[in-house]
């Protein structure tokens, strides 16, 4: 598996599932076919399924190892969880074995960091044990953005138990809180000397980017601030899943500007194949140089 180096830290992607999903016209309310076709030559087959034009997406976590800590960023979907999406329902994947094969057994994780609390970013926070959902990473503190958690806690009060984020708030977030493993943080919180956080609300009210800096180099873990590389070229194409379409577009552009300024390696949550790259300006938008 590819191990990337940022100063004295390492990064590895661990994939849970990958495959074609929505067609772009369904995914992006502002989709323009001609603009999509102009980029399709480099997106097929890694990022767009040949023939169908369905967007290919990965669900994966990032292992970050610094000299002091092992950090897991976003925890995918999880096993044995009841979801409405058939491709996400009642999964039984060897995700924990894949982590272990990367030198990251569950017991070694010091911090779990969720860029936001949607269903496909919190699933492995917990596992089913003796009929109960318990924290998967027994020695970890789980860091949740305070504003993000407060929003979904409020939604749960309004909607009722089991109704928020396809049930994941109840089976993948609340058990962590009840076990005393959760820490509600602001973006000035620094869990490791090499890590900083930045607010990029829009996809959800409390979406954050996580920056890893060392030795004059930086990587930025962006969660769902963007879902697909076409959004590098069309920053105004917010997904149908964004809480605030306009704010999401504004902060997506801000993220990309920040990556250009810092020459950060952009590490999104759902890019398959060549899953990370460097952002360069291109006209009034951007392009990506893949880190292969």
TrEMBL record:
Pfam families attached to this UniProt entry: Lactamase_B
Sorted UniProt keywords: Hydrolase, Metal-binding, Zinc
SUPFAM superfamilies the UniProt entry points to: Metallo-hydrolase/oxidoreductase
Cross-referenced SMART domains: Lactamase_B
GO MF assignments: hydrolase activity; metal ion binding
Keyword Ion transport attached: no
Metallo-beta-lactamase domain residues: 58-270
Coiled coil: none
Similarity section: Belongs to the metallo-beta-lactamase superfamily.
The protein's name in its UniProt record: Glyoxylase, beta-lactamase superfamily II
Species for this entry: Enhydrobacter aerosaccus
């Amino acid at each position: 598996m590819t191990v990337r180096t940022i100063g004295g830290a390492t990064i590895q992607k661990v994939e849970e599932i990958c495959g074609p999903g929505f067609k772009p016209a369904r995914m992006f309310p502002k989709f323009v076919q001609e603009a999509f076709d102009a980029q399709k030559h480099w997106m097929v087959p890694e990022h767009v399924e040949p023939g169908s034009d369905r967007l290919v997406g990965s669900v994966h976590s990032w292992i970050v190892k610094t000299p002091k800590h092992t950090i897991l960023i976003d925890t995918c979907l999880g096993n044995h969880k009841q979801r409405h999406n058939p491709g996400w329902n009642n999964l039984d994947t060897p995700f924990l074995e894949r982590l272990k094969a990367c030198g990251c057994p569950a017991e070694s994780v010091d911090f779990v960091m969720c860029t936001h609390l949607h269903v496909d970013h919190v699933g492995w926070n917990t596992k089913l044990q003796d009929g109960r959902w318990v924290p998967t990473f027994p020695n970890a503190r789980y860091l949740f953005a305070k504003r993000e958690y407060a929003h979904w806690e409020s939604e749960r009060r309004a909607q009722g138990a089991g109704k928020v984020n396809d049930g994941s708030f109840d089976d993948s977030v609340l058990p962590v809180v009840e076990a005393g493993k959760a820490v509600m943080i602001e973006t000035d919180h620094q869990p490791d000397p090499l890590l900083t956080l930045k607010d990029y609300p829009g996809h959800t009210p409390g979406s954050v980017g996580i920056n890893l800096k060392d030795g004059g180099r930086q990587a930025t873990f962006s969660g769902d601030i963007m879902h697909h590389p076409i959004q590098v070229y069309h920053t105004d194409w917010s997904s149908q899943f964004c809480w605030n379409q306009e704010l999401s577009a504004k902060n997506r552009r801000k993220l990309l500007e920040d990556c250009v300024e810092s020459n950060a390696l952009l590490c999104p949550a759902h890019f398959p194949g060549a899953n990370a790259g460097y952002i360069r300006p291109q006209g009034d938008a951007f392009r990506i140089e893949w880190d292969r």
